[in-house]
Amino acid sequence: MKKISKYKIDKSILLPLILFIIISIVTLYGTDSIIPNYMGNLPLKQLIWYAIGFVLAYLVMTVGNTFIYRISWFLYGAGIISLIGLFFFGTTINDATCWYEIEGIGTIQPSEFMKVILIITNATMIAKFNENFPNPTIREEFYFLIKIVGVVFIPSLLTFLQPDTGNVLIYLLITIVMLFVSGIRYRWFALLFGIIGILVAFIVIIYFISQDLFVNIFGTSFFLRIDRLLDWSNQSGFQLENSLSAIGSAGLFGHGWDTNPIYFPEAQTDFIFAAFASHFGFIGCVLLLCLIAFFDIRLIMLAIKTNSLTNKYILAGVIGMLIYQQVQNIGMTFGLMPITGITLPFISYGGSSLLSYMLAIGIVFNISNENIRYTNKSGI
Fold first, then answer.
1. Is the pLDDT of residue 377 over 50?
2. Domain ranges of the chain
């Protein structure tokens, strides 16, 4: 039996990650002409964030997943405190108070790290419940779901008030995916989607009946968020129209890796896929989508193979988070999804989001290492 190094890294996960780095840096460099000058050298900054991210991933691998799972509630408490602190010490950008300004470093967004913290907390809770109640009654499942709802509700409310609707949706989707994989009765999902459907219908009906009444009930901030979400159905808005023009005019091979004939805001973050499509055209987009699909499938295969319940739920949360953000981000550049400000994982510029993904990747590497440590496989 071949002994595997403690820090063995699964190359089928690492190699796509390296390609994501190259794609991100090249795309950011090519969008320099349509990025505001005050943002500075984004390719270099992104490279630095990636370097820090790999250090964090290495630290996660050093301490191990067992220790991280053990301190899940400490991490959860720290995440909640960081979200509360924004109301007192946060920096407001574009009418949203989602960041801490750190001199000489930039901004840090706690809600990005809260996504990973919720994955860890939910996974440990679900695994413990399944171990204690292998055949739970409906009553036992109900009380457990109440606990899960409470754990997710607190950061969701704090994040919503910043306001940051996009990350709230990710919190909820992560939790739903993890609960679905946990094997609880499907009737709970039917009940959940029924309640969500009624609430959404109520909000939309009021919005279309009387916008003044909507503002009086829910406030101006929530009205603007709903108004922005509904823009996509008419494919209206300067940002979306220019994104569609940039993608549509790129042809098979694009305008060139540093050519930007059409301007659209947030080319470095929310609309980086449109920037990539403009540069590399249809062929480039197909190759990028294939790379993303390979990366996701590799994580799904890892989740299927792992025997640890906690690891399985962790991977379910990470996969759900990544796939949702990939579909949402790419879809909104085509007008197929509402514009929510969600970034494309590993490719969009961003310190907090990138560091949170690298923390998750450190946990994934640990899980992969556990699977291959006592086998004769090389991890390729």
1. no
2. 11-186+220-372
